[in-house]
Predict the 3D structure of the following.
Amino acid sequence: MRKKVVIANWKMNQDFYETTSFLRNLLKIIFEINHKKEIIIAPSFPFLHISNQILQGSTLSIAAQNIHQMENGSYTGEVSASMLKSIGVQKVILGHSERRKHFSETNDILIKKIKTALKYKFIIIFCVGETEVERRKKEHFLSVKYQLEETIFHFSLENISSFIIAYEPIWAIGTGKTATPEVVQVMHQYIRSLFMDKYGKNISRKISILYGGSINDLNAKSLFYQKDIDGGLVGNSSLNIEKFMRIIQS
Ligand code: PGA
């Protein structure tokens, strides 16, 4: 059985009070419902430590939204893998299209980030996804294949169990335009076939592939019902505790 995973990607939202009260309330509610998913919250850097303390002893865990590729040094404003490890962070989101777009993260930089993350034994939530133009030109499969070939596929079989894949079509992120469950299923099946060709049947069966892009409490169920969709990376709708709970229960 593949792991079912729901991740809250809070991006640059939620201050100290909002972060801590959300997590305390979430713990109370989660305690009362019977769920079997892995739930991961990705708050901003300044609140990772307190978030980890709040979630200590629960089934929930935290992820960082980024790490720097270098291990340390003169990189003003950056945060290293070892710093995060030292406060107990064990997961990181890499390759998000907002990082690629606004912070010029190329595939080459991502390879370096992956190397560093693997060295520090992080679980890596790695995002791929096509643009609207690529989909219109029917180049979406090619685009996703290229992103995988130029990043994760540089790494050996032993490293692959450290990855969770998130398919996030860029046109669906933050736009309210969710991809249909059928469209996502076809892409997830394709991504799984790429892992099969590269690493074999076992890996392709085991690797969790999440969908991300305008997931909400109304569309989550039909998405998660698809056989190759193993959960979701949720942005906007994860900022509201009631909506997020309904997504978890989906
Ligand atoms: P969204 O963001 O749910 O707000 O579309 C998803 C993401 O960027 O991970």
Remarks:
- Residues 9, 168, 173-174, 212-215, 233-237 surround 2-phosphoglycolic acid (CB under 6 Å).
